[in-house]
Predict the 3D structure of the following.
Amino acid sequence: MSWPPFDSPCLTPPPADSGPLGPCMHCRVRHLAVCSVLAGEEVQALDALAGAQVLAPGTVLARQGEPRRHVYTVTRGALRLVRLSAGGRRQVAGFALPGDFVGLSGAAVHQHDIEALGETELCRFGVEAMQRLGTRFPHLQRKLLERACMELDSARDQLMALARMTPTERIADFLLRLAAQQARSGEPAASLALPMPRADIADHLGLTVETVSRCLTTLRTRGLIALPEIYRVEILDFAGLEALNPA
Amino acid sequence: MSWPPFDSPCLTPPPADSGPLGPCMHCRVRHLAVCSVLAGEEVQALDALAGAQVLAPGTVLARQGEPRRHVYTVTRGALRLVRLSAGGRRQVAGFALPGDFVGLSGAAVHQHDIEALGETELCRFGVEAMQRLGTRFPHLQRKLLERACMELDSARDQLMALARMTPTERIADFLLRLAAQQARSGEPAASLALPMPRADIADHLGLTVETVSRCLTTLRTRGLIALPEIYRVEILDFAGLEALNPA
DNA sequence: CGCACGATTGATACCGATCAAACGGCGTGG
DNA sequence: CCACGCCGTTTGATCGGTATCAATCGTGCG
């Protein structure tokens, strides 16, 4: 509940190129998934609902099986959504970066653990309050539907990747996806921060850590990327990476 | 546009166990994704928008890349959503059975080919008309959001399957999923019709035809299923199949 | 009856998982 | 300040499972 007064610039329309529900840079990407589509009255209602939070690295925001009480918008840092199976198998369903909305689900309980990768800032809304708001402001509901449809498209793309791409292709696809996501936040995509360890990439792409490592070195050897630090990738040849994608 | 007058029973609430957006058996599962949630005026508006269609087996309803002009609800038969990559790789994103809503996507053009598996009956709505209706009836928009969230959950489940399950586990999971879907339509799930050829199952689960065949015989040998006909599966041991799922 | 096509069964090859080891950075403690 | 140890990453060697190639079977249709 302790957060600075809402920036008035946030009420101005977002830049034309920000796309549907894109980040609203005016308000320092604060609960950007919704702020860019609402008018004054609605923003006030949202402010009353929202709580800002800063999470230390490794903080567990939610565990699978717990009742879903909140939805979140990420404004800084990164989250990972992890599913652990009874057999000990691990799957990283996705990563939430600044601008992402977390919590679109039809289930009453969390399907994933939600964990902070680094120091992460986010904005929290109660689900039932959000639903009430949705009925009061059809505009918001519509934007949420758009967002859900986008995520659906994204999930289907990923199905294709998991089903029919080789490990190297998956890594290339993953890097390009991350670059695009980072580009949406305004930063150039050539130098790419990887907020997650190799194991998370592996569990995200259905691979092992060793294979991820090997594929990264393969891409480096081919001159497509550089690895100046462990948690950073320079994309040297976008076209070359895209050429790997058989889509 | 040629379809029988709208059954009045359709205006009554759907059976309690039909779940959100579940099939509305009263109106013979006709455009069931929406009919069960609307009142008289809205239903009339929908009728004006909807067109019933019956497709012969193999009919192509849409091709990837074409502009998306319609959404559909399946009332009989089955559709498959196919994506073909430049490299010739094939991915079946999913199957639409009676009760399913096809067309939740944020893209302006189709991401998949949509093809009828057998003789298939469906109901067509224009997307922009549907959107107008959504703004006029927030109730509808909300139901669409719920449906989108459900599909999102389902897609994420499938990601887990593709990333971390063995071929046999994927087949078992697929059969149980299909059984559950068929059960929603009211029919008992023990005897399961497979509307699609083996190749579609393979391309849906990221396998080859040969592996699908081998896994089915494996399950049969273990006494978990029977295969009385090629396009039919009897589930003999639900618990046994579920035990294969490591989730 | 013969053909065509999809499904099944069989034999082999290859790729990624697994097992194992070495490397590197970083924090701690001596 | 340096030595050590921990943990994540990288690299290496081997194994196994699934794709691939190939052949047979079965069914429906001409």
Observations:
- The interface with chain B takes residues 20, 83, 85-87, 89-91, 93, 104-107, 111, 134-135, 138, 141-142, 144-146, 148-153, 155-156, 158-160, 162-164, 203-206, 246-247 of chain A (CB under 8 Å).
- Chain A is about 40% helix and 20% strand.
- The two ends of chain A are 45 Å apart (CA to CA).
- Confidence is low (pLDDT under 50) at residues 1-37 of chain A.
